[in-house]
Design goal:
single chain, 161 residues, alpha+beta, Alpha-D-Glucose-1,6-Bisphosphate, Chain A, domain 4
């Protein structure tokens, strides 16, 4: 399993996942830059993602849905706020009612991805920033930690292909 740690910090309102992969940083970067690769791992193994929109530029948007085992769809959106190829990406991440209508009743998070060489491997650190403790608790109770760990666990197979 490539996930080294998953740490919740209630004081900082963050959830940080650290994983390492046997691939160059540029190859790990493509997991975000290429929506077809992103679909193969974003979301838990039983909830694969489909990206309908992926404008991978600062200010660009991504729209996706994850399909559950019973065919249920959960929609989400991203807005890219910073991109430093192949080192880091920052984006807002939220829920949607459908492909184009944000669900303002659900939390919006800020996510930062750092990709860096770590000896013979590449370390990917994904830090999720929450607005408050209630949102952090809500998403943790929805299975966010397990979902992130499951998603990151799918990456080795994509990098090996």
């Amino acid at each position: 399993m490539p996930v080294l740690s998953t740490t919740k910090d209630a004081d900082a309102l963050t959830l940080t996942l650290v994983a390492e992969y046997d691939a160059a940083p540029e190859k790990v970067w493509q997991l975000f830059a290429d929506p077809r690769k992103l679909e193969r791992w974003w979301g838990p193994p039983t909830w694969p993602a489909t990206f309908e929109q992926h404008d991978f530029t600062v200010g660009g948007d991504a729209g996706y849905y994850m399909t559950g085992p019973d065919g249920e769809k959960a929609y989400g959106w991203w807005r890219f706020t910073a991109i430093d190829e192949p080192k880091s990406i920052e984006f807002e991440d939220g829920f949607s009612h459908d492909a184009s209508t944000p669900n303002n009743d659900m939390p919006t998070m800020r996510i930062r991805v750092d990709i860096e060489p770590a000896g013979d491997v590449t370390r990917m650190t994904v830090t999720t920033f929450f607005r408050d403790a209630a949102e952090m608790t809500q998403l943790s109770e929805m299975g966010m930690v397990e979902g992130m760990e499951g998603a990151a666990g799918q990456i080795d197979a994509i990098l090996a292909a």
